[in-house]
Specification:
The complex is a heterotrimer of chains A (298), B (535) and C (306). Chain B has 535 residues and is an alpha+beta fold. Chain B has helices spanning 4-18, 113-123, 133-136, 161-165, 176-189, 235-243, 254-262, 302-310, 314-321, 344-353, 357-366, 389-402, 414-422, 440-447, 460-471, 475-492; strands at residues 35-40, 68-70, 77-79, 82-87, 93-98, 139-146, 149-154, 197-203, 207-212, 226-231, 249-250, 266-281, 327-328, 374-380, 405-411, 429-436, 496-507. Chain B is globular, with a radius of gyration of 25 Å. The chains are: A mainly alpha (298), B alpha+beta (535), C mainly alpha (306).
Chain lengths: 298, 535, 306
């Protein structure tokens, strides 16, 4: 039963618990549980878990403080906003919105970027040069400015925000995948496949892509947090999701001028963003360290 | 060693950029006892007043004067740079007798009629975009009778001239001598005016400063030697400025006023209501032959318009979104100061427009819209200093939902909404908007007249009556016609009138004593020379 | 080497040109600037007159041609909102403020990240490492404007240590720079840490230790030097991020820089200024990237032949 422990366990931990703790320490427990609690569970179970309709409010109940302050009630544990809507409910639905926006944006942006990156790395030559120039241009587009101008043109909507995010995200995937493709394509098994007569697309999808997936996962995880932050920044500037969507970023923007008087309107969604992004970053870091240490530069 | 270089360079670069001092730290000085700082939501910062809209004339109020004054207590037009003014019997010519012995700042000589001609000519420049430029272009000729008398001759009769030439308008009198000597460049750098403050300088994007002038021709003696308007677009920044003592007066939204009051600040209200908020309805183009008219727009039917009005609990809306600070608007565009105001509206308002969700549902049903059958968009936008638009839109959405009307809120920018009601493509929607006071005739001309720039509620009666009113010069006749137009709008539920708001600024009572200002002046917060220091 | 530089330079020019096309089109798609410029009172005659004055009545391709011909000479036209100022003049006027803020924020991030990164590397795997990681990550997880407002509230209003807004001496820069810079601390720290780890393990360091050089000297003098090369690429990215991230920070602290300028310009549909700012930003960014690429190619010959 002699397992070498790297650290001494607290004297009060009985042996069986000690072994369990050792197992648990291998995984980023804190990060994962925060994530589940703050993002995944509320997002998925929103209609069941949320006490009120996030869009319905009563002006008579506006700006009620959280339950532990003077004037707060248990009916609205985190208080209400400018229009009397329950903050807790809006935060729960906000998790859903944040998750949806980031997943869609990353999926679309990631797919586009991966596809282009694969082609760029695999075919090389003119395709590569062209795509890399596009990457450069897209990375040089001033993020927020592009969003502002685009949203001013077509008005804030879910689609516009996704478009902006996709335009901003795809390049990083393209660059990453291209780099990986370049190193993978020289390997033996690729040469063998080519000799066996596999078509280009088959090689890219069946041989190269699976080796790239690990890095993609790490990048994607790290980007969810970034996307959530970006969306909140866009909302702050008025270029984000349309009202009255219960999005965390919008909630902070709404409570912006109230940050002293009715601090809870901005504080809780701000905390939610912070903790969610923090746990995503921790998770991403852990994934990076464990899936592929080569990815330090991601 | 070689590899150390990049990071060293980077740090050096960062440090160098940090300590670069291209901008003078003028604004960094602590507020001197003699300096008054006003934290404003922002204005187009430029000295070219002929390109600046009326609300942003706030920045000219201390140092550039107008021909007529607006009395801070009564709102009447009184003498300023002009001592007397009179219209010809046909109201096509306005003669102004100018004051003698008025010096321009910086030694540019005495004020004469030539300066009036010059100032008007600035309004006629091709790039001029000030609020009343359209009006000033109606002037055929500005004739100099002698050094102290000038006549404005108009193409059409007008009674609006005193308003336009007053502190509520935008004709700033500047020095021709300066222009002749220094041109536009010199004017941009340091405009000479006649006010009791004179221009010191600007820090672009940050502030504009003035200093007190001794021996003002009208004997105005401001209590504060230096005056600064600081631009701070964020509301919480303005609150922070005044609470930390960096600013002594701040333009704060109602929500934050509570907090300022809690910490000992005081609110200074304008003598008169200055802005009104109404929810406008698109698509009401009833003039015969108007192709923009679409009969499927629900509120072309009067019962629907009334329903949209009575579904709203105005009192609750006022208390929640505007902290109770406002008085009712009975007819859009009309305040008690307006021509043709009818005191009867006040007593009849509750019965016709009062909150009654049951009545709203019944009216809708009568018009053929059962619960959930009426759907439309509410457009909202925000401007610096006016953040309540979207809140009101959302509140409306909630009230309408209660009576079975489905709404969708779309937040656009102001310019888009404006384009829509200019081009009559706004039949889909309703939108709340805050507009500042102007003479009722002007308001109707620009909003309810087929040849005007914007198109809200238009029909034959309004058209006919307005034209007669605009041509009329007899005061009694004008009152009658004005009232006829207003009564019609009242009876027909032309839109959803909400509230009148006075201008409110928050000031530190330890520094600022009494301050009476009308609110009707261009820029809303005006008459800074009347601010008395606290004891 | 020359061919490489020439090729990259031409590609950069192409990138800038494409940017100008994108911005020009997008800016005009946002709508008619006259609706912002002109007052409610303005009728069709006013629209026509002002439109003619600014050349907006011309077809789009002519407008673009005029714009391009002037832009290559550095003339981006007159601003429509800031009357009397040229678009480029405004950018030039406001850019130093943004660069100053970005510079100081960069300085703060490096000043924070360097010791934390070194500490984390040296004490790898211990609590210090985790604490360092969390402090840095915190910065990356906070919404910038929220942080700014909270900092302003605590330090400027309640404690009164710093002014709330505006520009002046160094005390005006501290809060905005922290708000702007904290975000980068994580990334820089991670880079420093991993570079340090690589170096700490290397042969020559082991040699230095055997020679008897004190540990602190090993860490700070020898390892750090070699660990510094990786952050090089970073400067380019950070520069871009800081400059655009400044939009939000400048808003909160009323810092009169280009970020605030562009937000106001977009709102006012002042295309001339929007174009000028975006192209200048993109230009700086693209050229910085180019310089870094060239520097890298100089340091690592393999890259030149890609």
């Amino acid at each position: 039963m002699a397992t070498v422990t790297a650290r001494a366990l607290p004297w009060y931990a009985p042996p069986r618990v000690a072994r369990a703790l050792r197992q648990v320490r291998r995984y980023p427990v804190v990060a994962l549980s925060l994530l589940m609690f703050l993002l995944v569970i509320p997002a998925v179970l929103a209609p069941l878990v949320s006490p009120y309709d996030p869009l319905k409010g009563s002006l008579a109940k506006r700006l009620k403080p959280p339950v532990w302050q003077q004037g707060g009630t248990i009916e609205h544990p985190l208080g209400t906003d400018k229009l009397g809507r329950d903050i807790l409910s809006r935060m729960i639905y906000g998790a859903r919105v944040s998750l949806m926006v980031s997943l869609v944006a990353i999926f679309v942006g990631g797919s586009v970027g991966t596809g282009l990156g694969l082609m760029s790395g695999y075919f090389g030559g003119k395709t590569d040069a062209l795509i890399m120039r596009l990457v450069d241009i897209s990375l040089s587009l001033p993020t927020i400015l592009l969003a502002l101008v685009l949203v001013a043109a077509v008005g804030p909507s879910f689609g516009t925000v996704i478009t902006v995010l996709v335009v901003l995200l795809w390049a990083r995937y393209a660059r990453l995948v291209r780099g990986e493709t370049l190193s993978i394509k020289e390997r033996d098994f690729i040469a063998r496949a080519r000799v066996a007569g596999a078509s280009h697309s088959r090689i890219m999808t069946r041989y190269i892509f699976p080796n790239v997936v690990n890095s993609l996962i790490v990048l994607a995880t790290l980007q969810v947090g970034y996307v959530i932050l970006l969306e909140s920044a866009l909302s702050f500037l008025g270029a984000g999701l349309p009202r009255p969507t219960p999005a965390w970023g919008l909630m902070i923007a709404d409570g912006r001028e109230l940050i002293v008087t009715a601090w809870w309107v901005s504080l809780f969604p701000g905390l939610a963003i912070m903790l969610t992004v923090l746990s995503l970053n921790l998770l991403g870091d852990w994934l990076r360290d464990h899936l592929d240490p080569k990815l330090r530069h991601v | 060693m070689r590899r150390f270089v990049p990071i060293a360079l980077g740090l050096l670069l960062a440090l160098a950029l940090t300590f670069e001092t291209t901008l003078t730290p003028g604004a960094a000085q602590e507020a001197k006892a003699q300096k008054l700082v006003f934290a404003s939501a922002g204005f187009e910062d430029s000295n070219r007043f002929w390109m600046v809209s009326r609300p942003d004339h706030l920045q000219y109020d201390p140092f550039l004067e107008t021909l007529l004054e607006v009395d801070p207590k009564t709102g009447e037009y009184t003498a300023r740079l002009a001592e007397k003014w009179q219209a010809s019997p046909d109201y096509k010519e306005w003669t102004f007798t100018l004051r003698k012995g008025v010096p321009f700042h910086f030694g540019y000589g005495q004020f004469t009629a030539k300066d009036v001609v010059h100032s008007h000519a600035l309004m006629m420049r091709q790039e001029a975009t000030a609020t009343l430029v359209g009006f000033w272009r109606q002037v055929d000729e500005v004739k100099v009778v002698n050094d102290h008398q000038v006549v404005f001759r108009f193409k059409r009769p007008t009674t609006v001239m005193p308003y336009a030439a007053s502190r509520a308008g935008d004709l700033r009198i500047v020095s021709k001598a300066q222009w002749d000597k220094e041109g536009l460049e010199g004017f941009d750098k340091r405009p000479a005016g006649t006010g009791s403050y004179r221009y010191v300088g600007r820090q672009p994007g940050l502030s504009i400063t003035f200093e007190r002038v001794d021996n003002h021709y009208r004997g105005e003696k401001p209590a504060f030697k230096e005056l600064e308007f600081r631009l701070a677009r964020e509301e919480s920044t303005r609150l922070a400025l005044i609470l930390s003592g960096e600013a002594q007066i701040a333009d704060l939204p109602r929500e934050l006023q509570k907090d300022a009051l809690k910490r000992g600040m005081k609110i200074y209200t304008s003598s008169f209501p200055v802005d009104w908020m109404t929810v406008y309805l698109g698509g009401l183009y009833f003039l015969p032959g108007d192709t923009a008219f679409k009969p499927d727009v629900a509120w072309t039917k009067k019962p629907v318009r009334q329903a949209l009005n009575v579904a709203i609990n105005r009192k609750e809306l006022l208390n929640t979104v505007f902290a109770g600070k406002g008085t009712p608007t009975y007819v859009t565009g009309w305040s008690a100061q307006s021509e043709g105001y009818n005191p009867e509206w006040a007593s009849r308002f509750d019965q016709m427009y009062g909150y009654n969700p049951g009545k709203a549902k019944a009216l809708l049903k009568e018009a053929g819209y059962g619960p959930g059958q009426l759907k439309f968009k509410i457009l909202a936008f925000t401007e610096p200093g006016e953040s309540e638009g979207p809140q009101v839109a959302e509140a409306l959405g909630i009230y309408y939902k209660d009576v079975g009307v489905e709404t969708e809120i779309e937040v656009l920018d102001w310019a888009k909404v404006r384009e829509m009601f200019r081009k009559k493509t706004i039949g889909c929607c309703i939108w709340p908007n805050i507009i500042s006071w102007r003479p009722a005739e002007e308001w109707i001309r620009i909003s309810n007249h087929s040849k005007g720039p914007n198109h809200h509620y238009e029909n034959e009666f309004i058209e006919k009556t307005y034209l007669a009113w605009a041509a009329a010069v007899n005061p009694g006749e004008r009152q009658r016609l004005a009232r006829a137009v207003a009564d019609h709008l009242f009876e027909e539920f032309a839109d959803i009138p909400l509230f009148w708001f006075a201008n409110e600024v928050v000031a530190n009572p330890k520094v600022v004593g009494e301050w009476v200002y009308p609110g009707l002046g261009a820029g809303r917060s005006t008459h800074f020379h009347l601010i008395k220091a606290a004891k | 080497m020359q061919r490489f530089i020439a090729r990259r330079f031409l590609q950069s020019l192409l990138a800038i040109w494409v940017m100008s096309l994108i911005v020009f089109t997008l800016a005009r798609v946002t709508g008619n600037p006259l609706d912002v410029m002109l007052p409610l009172e303005a009728g069709p005659e006013e629209y026509e007159r002002v439109s003619k004055y600014w050349g907006l009545d011309q077809p789009l391709y002519i407008q673009y041609a005029i714009f391009l011909s002037k832009a290559v000479r550095g003339d981006f036209g007159s601003s429509w909102k800031w009357h009397g100022h040229s678009a480029m003049g405004l950018v030039r006027q406001r850019l130093p403020a943004t660069l100053q803020l970005a510079g100081f924020a960069l300085f703060i991030s490096i000043a924070l990240a360097l010791p934390i990164g070194v500490l984390a590397a040296v004490k790898k795997g211990t609590a210090w490492d985790s604490v360092a990681k969390i402090i840095a990550l915190l910065g990356q997880s906070l919404p910038g404007f929220w942080l700014g407002i909270v900092l302003m509230w605590i330090f400027a209003v309640h404690l009164g240590w710093f002014p709330t807004s505006g520009r002046g001496g160094i005390q005006y820069m501290i809060l905005p720079a922290i708000t702007l810079g904290w975000f980068q601390v994580a990334a820089i720290m991670r880079l420093v840490r991993s570079s340090m780890l690589e170096v700490l393990d290397s042969e020559f360091v082991k040699l230095t230790r055997i020679k008897g050089v004190p540990e602190w000297k090993v860490v700070w003098k020898h390892c750090l030097r070699n660990a510094s090369i990786a952050p090089l690429t970073f400067f380019a990215i950070i520069a871009g991020v800081l400059m655009t991230g400044s939009v939000v920070t400048e808003s909160v602290f009323s810092w009169p820089g280009t970020g605030l300028l562009v937000v106001d310009a977009v709102r006012a549909r002042d295309f001339q200024v929007v174009q000028a700012v975006v192209i200048v930003f993109a230009g700086i960014f693209i050229l910085t990237n180019l310089l870094v690429d060239i520097l890298y190619a100089y340091l690592d010959p393999r890259i030149r032949y890609q």
